[in-house]
Amino acid sequence: MDSISLIKEICQSVDKFEEELQQQFHVNINEAITICLLATGQYSSGDVSKLTHMRASHTSKILRSLEEKGFVNRIMGEKDKRLMYFSLTEKGENAGRVLRNNDIALPPLIRKLEEVIEKEGK
């Protein structure tokens, strides 16, 4: 298989995975990544941006969307009331458990890539 065809097949597999996220959780892939991060603790918008490698403006939109969908709570900073932190709601925690435990079906090509990456990491 040529490289271009392989890349196209990978993109189609990622699109299929994102469709599954939409069907099961009503979130896109960046929202799912943010849920997985927040499943590990409470973070500011800046922290989320740095840890997910997304631009600050994009992170703000994602956090707002997740808040509107009921996955995320906004918490005022204790020391600095101007600083906002984000944590998961019960709905978000449930989604985070499923996403972090790989309880969502991955397309076969993505599953193979995951196996190769895990093998390379050992």
Describe the structure.
This protein has 122 residues and is mostly helical. The protein has a single domain, classed as Arc Repressor Mutant, subunit A (Orthogonal Bundle), CATH 1.10.10.10. The chain has 6 helices and 3 strands. The chain has helices at residues 3-25, 29-38, 45-52, 56-68, 90-100, 108-121; strands at 43-44, 72-76, 84-88. Strands 1-3-2 form a 3-stranded antiparallel β-sheet. α2 crosses α4 and α2 crosses α5.
Write the layout of secondary structure elements.
Elements: H1 3-25, H2 29-38, E1 43-44, H3 45-52, H4 56-68, E2 72-76, E3 84-88, H5 90-100, H6 108-121
Antiparallel strand pairs: 1-3, 2-3
Helix pairs in contact: 2-4, 2-5, 3-4
Under the CATH scheme, the architecture is: Orthogonal Bundle
| Percent range of helical residues | 55-70%
Rg over alpha carbons: 16 Å
Shape: elongated
Question: Concise description?
Answer:
Helix content is 65%, strand content 10%. With 122 residues, the chain is mainly α.
Give a quick set of tags describing it.
single chain; 122 residues; mainly alpha; Arc Repressor Mutant, subunit A; 6 helices; 3 strands; 10% strand; elongated
